[in-house]
Amino acid sequence: MSAYAAPVRDMRFVLRHVADLDAVARLPGAEGADPELVDQILEEAARFAGGVLAPLNRPGDQEGSRLENGVVRTPAGFREAYRAFVDAGWNSLPFDPAHGGQGLPWLVGTAVGEMWASANMAFSLCPLLTQGAIDLLSHHASPEQKATYLPNMIAGTWTGTMNLTEPQAGSDLGQIRSRAVRRDDGTYAISGQKIFITWGDHDLAENIVHMVLARTPDAPAGSRGISLFIVPRFLPDAEGRPGTANDVRTVSLEHKLGIHASPTCVLSFGDGGGATGFRVGEENRGLEYMFTMMNNARLSVGLEGVAIAERAYQQARHHALARVQSRELGAPDPAPVAIARHPDVRRMLLAMRARAEATRALAYTVAASLDHGLRHPDPAERQRHQSFVDLMIPVVKAWSTDLGVEVASTGIQVHGGMGFIEETGAAQHLRDARIAPIYEGTNGIQANDLVFRKLGRDRGAAAETLIERMRADLRAPMPDGIAEPVSDGVESLAAATVWMVEAQKAEPARAAAGAAAYLRLLGTVAGGWLMAKSAAAAATALDAGEDPEFHRAKIAVARFYARHEMPAAAACLAALKDGADSVVEFDPDWL
């Protein structure tokens, strides 16, 4: 496996010229995120990711986490790496200084989070879930709960988990059976089993704080009867330190396709009479509260698609530049050359790079709007940005993770037969990437969320606002060969949006059959729009004589994306409009 080097120049370019870091740094409370400080953060994060986390990626995959006599042991080096991670303050980056955070924008945290996931996706899942639990508690916990849990979780000395799924209840959370019975002291006795709990038990931190969905005895049926509870692995004592062990047991660890170093646990609550839980907010509003954590995680999981695409691209590029085989087409010299000089290999590498850059641009742009939605002094601007975030979260999650899998698969193809051999490391990226389209609601669920909730609730208004924004940006001067294909894609998106807004209400089955195609279309076009903005910014820098090789490459990659990726927009439009009937009319018995 090749070494990982964070693409700091590319990240800096997107932060400044696409996501507009300067505008984010002008927001109230974000003034400290000036470009010089952010550059220093990126450089330090790159050193940590490349020097500490990345070297553990393959050994961690080979060793895996294991359950020994009821105790989960992580692979060699992970405890030391996590301690260094916490001591360096990386866990606290985007959180409220009132509870020990550094108060930096989510945009900066997103760029740094990409490095963690690229370097070591299995490791990165632990702080990812802690981050989501912190966000949930920051929004919905009581002042006393915040005082008890947030400082430790923000510091990283305690970690967080998400406990939703049960053996009989996958995505349909209305089917959960875990019970919560109120005690006289106001706590709850929690009982039941949860499965697929990422980092549900481990030896990295001194406490683990489980966010658990469960039902009270008189709760209404379905998702309306779910409440949310804090269930710590160790109950905090009077001084807020981990005290008595709670009634939570790790039954087993799942044997998975990838992310072997990340312990995915089956947890049993209440085998000894009831785990102690503390209710968050009101009874029967637990799923509503949990969506705060889920949406945070969906952006982070989408970032995993970006990260694995970047890592797989770096691996494939390294191999293609080092592997010498066959003469170059049309060259008089018969000597074999690096396979990167062969057109088909170069095409694959360009596709990998273009997709990594497009998904990065979208993830960072959404993160910047998240900051504006939280911090902007004008309520109308906050709402405008939040509407964009709400619309695009399912796209970042689904489109980016689908492309992450495709890029990792292409990386194996670049390696040829050697890619199918575990020792090269290319296969691990594909194995690790494959979970991301399933996490936090499968990508089909994300497509339905986009069509029926996001388009449905405002009749496509947020999408139309985005389309107009794209049209305006594409009228700006930019290098040849980019604006026209992207503009054609925008018009395909506009037509698809009109069709989908009507279909999701009048013909919901047809709309559902075309939802995945609509999401792919929106992601492809949004990526093209942002790649076009990148090309325009690169052209301006090139005219100023700044780093010619870097900026020429930016323009060339954007042109490749426009010509190779954008034609898919028209195909997606045709699939969702004309192909829905072939799905709806197919009798499941014929399968």
Molecular structure report:
This protein is α+β, with helices and mostly antiparallel strands. It has 3 domains: 8-155, Acyl-CoA dehydrogenase/oxidase, N-terminal domain (Butyryl-Coa Dehydrogenase, subunit A, domain 1, Orthogonal Bundle), CATH 1.10.540; 158-284, Butyryl-CoA Dehydrogenase, subunit A, domain 2; 443-591. Helix content is 57%, strand content 12%. The strands form 4 sheets. Strands 3, 4, 5, 6, 7, 10, 11 and 12 form an 8-stranded mixed sheet that branches. It has a two-stranded antiparallel sheet with strand order 1-2. It has a two-stranded antiparallel sheet with strand order 8-9. A hairpin with a 5-residue loop joins strand 4 and strand 5. It starts with 7 loop residues before the first helix and ends in a 7-residue tail after the last helix.
Short description:
This protein has 591 residues and is an alpha+beta fold. It is built from 19 helices and 14 strands. It has 3 domains: 8-155, Acyl-CoA dehydrogenase/oxidase, N-terminal domain (Butyryl-Coa Dehydrogenase, subunit A, domain 1, Orthogonal Bundle), CATH 1.10.540; 158-284, Butyryl-CoA Dehydrogenase, subunit A, domain 2, CATH 2.40.110.20; 443-591.
